[in-house]
Design goal:
The complex is a heterodimer of chains A (about 230) and B (about 425). With about 230 residues, chain A is an alpha/beta fold. In chain A, about 30% of the residues lie in helices and about 25% in strands. Chain B has a 6-stranded mixed sheet with strand order 9-5-2-10-1-11. A 5-stranded mixed sheet of chain B has the order 4-3-7-8-6. Bound molecules: adenosine-5'-triphosphate and magnesium ion.
């Protein structure tokens, strides 16, 4: 079974000016991501890469076509079922770090445990996760007291708390310096080795090099990237 | 969502929005404070009114109607037979006849009065009452002792209050307690009036002995055993059969209406002047309390509007965080619950603060009244009657107002499209 299947995926935005034609973001995307694959997606700004991740993660439901994620046909799921799917089986990492300012690093990692049925053994897992991203000693720091790289690592530890089989990441290294970015790419490699499916939007060649497949979103369709294909 | 987790998240958000939420909670506190304050004041003033004009909800005073010329035929008299019939009226528990002293009387006292030389002459209004009415309030036997023996009298306790608060201070007389006075004897001259300036044939001197104070005794005049009054009236050739009025006590206050109509069917009338005055004052206090409570409700409603604005602003500001929560598994319901929990906490704080403010305001005013106002009869220790039910009502309304204010913001937060929320900023 494939982890992600997109069939004739279209996204339509309302017309820019009143009376104009609706904006069609894609021409009908087709994509199959196998279990355990690490797929990188590149593309110019505004081609809809973030939108694609939101659709795959069930955060954006206004689309045409078919989306199957981890065996579930998203269109048929209720709000609660979608929330449960995100809770237990999908991890999100965003470009800007999106931590809750009033919670400590540990509490931010524990955030998924606040919802649904919680996460088994959450606190121990959260501390392990922080240790894995090298932040064991920052558990009780507030986001304000963390550097950009540290915040992104907290966000990654949060995405991994439920041990999801699928990780969606939107330019995870976009705001980081080269060295910090390298640490995160190493972590993704490790997750990939452990069998996790990764769909990562990126501008960075270093990230794409770590991927098992690289696609480019251009003119409303996905194309294989000939430069990097199969280099990992 | 687990309550402890919900609490932690709500708390985190509240601590960030402390400034705005303190304003919101302050508004709620003001409204609830006014509400609880006015309710307690209303109840307190009602209680003072009841002390000043005590009416029993279970009692009626039956009198003979002021007869017109046409109804002379078949006139009803308040004699023992009528009293017996009144006792038979369904719902009547007891009937106490009253008989006015129908001859004038004066008392004169020249001599020492608790260490002061006083000279006093007073017209006496005497009322004969049944000893059962005052029960154990008399500390000396309250029965007719016969000619030449001191006549036991009982005085309404409120007269002592008026004496102590007004009469005594103005004349430099000592303040008295009932135990100082009970047993005190003073002369009475029956059949004589200073005001009318006349003395009836057969007037004679007797003495009175204060047998006790009672809330049950009529306010006006000195209460004597009914047999004594009957004897004196007869001695002066006055009617010795009919009573002046009969006090009826109902078994339950709900029966008073039925008893009243039964009494009227018997051709008798009711003296409701005292009762009506007390009811009117009570109704006026009730009305003012209601008006002030409505004002307080208006303030609370404005506080709810303020909460709505504060939470709308908060939701706008936290759009991205709400998106993040949705991304890690929060449902729409979780988001709404979180906002409403924050509103509930705001309401509880505002309500508790309001109740505390009301309490404090009450203490302050009582203190000012105690030290700043002159003594007057029935001056109460407190003008307020705070009840646990007021505290509960205050907090419940505060929470309800906060939840109402946060309702639309919570709905808006739940309806946020997570994808757009995450793209924002
Ligand atoms: N709510 C919306 N209404 C109308 N147009 C929208 C809306 N949201 C996004 N778009 C448009 O959809 C397009 C794709 O947006 P998206 O954020 O997915 O691009 P992206 O590929 O992630 O760009 P970037 O590389 O800059 O992050 C953009 O042209 C954007 O203007
Ligand atoms: Mg983007």
């Amino acid at each position: 079974m494939s982890a992600i299947e997109l069939r004739a995926l279209r996204k339509r935005y309302p017309p820019r000016e009143p009376g104009g034609a609706p904006q069609d973001l894609w021409r009908g995307l087709e994509l199959t991501v196998g279990e355990g694959e690490f797929v990188a997606i590149e593309g110019q700004s505004g081609t809809g890469k973030s939108t694609l991740l939101h659709v795959v993660g069930g955060l954006d439901r206004a689309y045409e076509g078919e989306v199957l994620v981890l065996g579930e046909r998203l269109r048929g799921l209720s709000d609660a079922r979608l929330a449960a799917l995100r809770h237990a089986r999908i991890g999100f990492v965003f470009q800007s770090f999106n931590l809750l300012a009033e919670l400590t690093a540990l509490e931010n990692v524990l955030l998924p445990d606040y919802f649904g049925d919680g996460v088994p053994d959450a606190e121990r897992r959260a501390r392990e996760g922080l240790a894995r991203v090298g932040l064991a000693d920052k558990a009780s720091s507030r986001p304000m007291a963390l550097s950009g790289g540290e915040r992104q690592r907290v966000a990654i530890a949060r995405a991994l708390l439920s041990r999801p089989p699928l990780l969606l990441a939107d330019e995870p290294t976009g705001n980081l310096d080269a060295r910090t970015g390298e640490g995160i790419i190493d972590l993704f490699r490790e997750l990939h080795r452990d069998g996790m499916t990764l769909l990562v939007v990126t501008h960075e060649v270093r990230v794409s090099r770590a991927a098992s497949r690289v696609l480019v979103l251009r003119e409303g369709a996905l194309f294989p990237d000939p430069r990097l294909e199969g280099s990992a | 969502m687990k309550p402890a987790r919900l609490w932690r998240l709500a708390n985190a958000n509240l601590s960030r929005e402390l400034g705005a939420l303190a304003v919101s909670a302050g508004g709620v506190a003001l409204g609830i404070g006014c509400l609880v304050f006015f309710l307690a004041l209303g109840r307190g003033v009602q209680r003072v009114v009841r002390d000043v004009f005590p009416v029993s909800a279970r009692e009626l005073e039956v009198v003979v109607p002021q007869v017109g010329v046409g109804s002379l035929f078949g006139e009803v008299r308040l004699d023992d037979a009528t009293v017996a019939r009144l006792r038979q009226v369904p719902g009547v528990a007891e009937a106490f006849p009253r008989l006015a002293l129908r001859v004038p009387a004066v008392t004169r006292y020249n001599g020492l009065f608790f260490g002061r030389e006083i000279r006093m002459g007073l017209e006496v209004v005497g009322v004969g009452i049944s000893p059962d009415l005052i029960g154990g309030d008399a500390r000396f036997p309250f029965v007719d002792a016969g000619e030449d023996k001191p006549i036991p009298v009982v005085v309404n306790r409120r007269l002592l209050e008026i004496y102590n608060k007004v009469f005594a201070p103005q004349r430099g007389l000592p303040t008295l307690t009932d135990s100082m006075l009970v047993g005190f004897q003073f002369p009475i001259e029956l059949g004589r009036s200073y005001v009318a300036g006349k003395t009836l044939p057969g007037s004679y001197e007797a003495s009175l002995r204060l047998a006790g104070f009672s809330d049950r005794a009529p306010l006006a005049g000195l209460s004597m055993p009914i047999e004594t009054v009957r004897r004196i009236n007869a001695r002066f050739g006055q009617d010795s059969v009919g009573y002046s009025s009969v006090l009826l006590r109902a078994q339950r206050s709900e029966q008073v209406g039925e008893i009243a109509s039964a009494v009227k069917r018997m051709g008798l009338d009711l003296d409701e002047s005292e009762r009506n005055r007390a009811l009117q004052i009570g109704a006026a206090v009730e009305l003012v309390t209601l008006a002030l409570s409505l004002l307080a409700a208006l303030i609370t409603a404005l506080a709810a509007v303020n909460i709505a604005q504060a939470f709308h602003a908060e939701v706008r500001e936290r759009t991205r965080e709400i998106g993040v929560m949705r991304a890690v598994g929060a449902t729409r319901g979780d988001v709404a619950t979180l906002i409403l929990a924050e509103a509930a906490v705001t309401g509880i704080c505002g309500g508790a603060l309001g109740v505390a403010l009301a309490r404090l305001g009450g203490l302050l005013i009582d203190r000012v009244a105690r030290n700043g106002l002159p003594q007057f009869p029935f001056k109460p220790d407190t003008f307020f009657d705070f009840r646990p039910s007021h505290v509960i009502l205050g907090v419940v309304i505060a929470v309800a107002a906060s939840l109402a204010g946060a309702f639309f913001p919570a709905r808006a937060a739940a309806a946020l499209d997570p994808a757009r929320a995450l793209s924002e900023g």
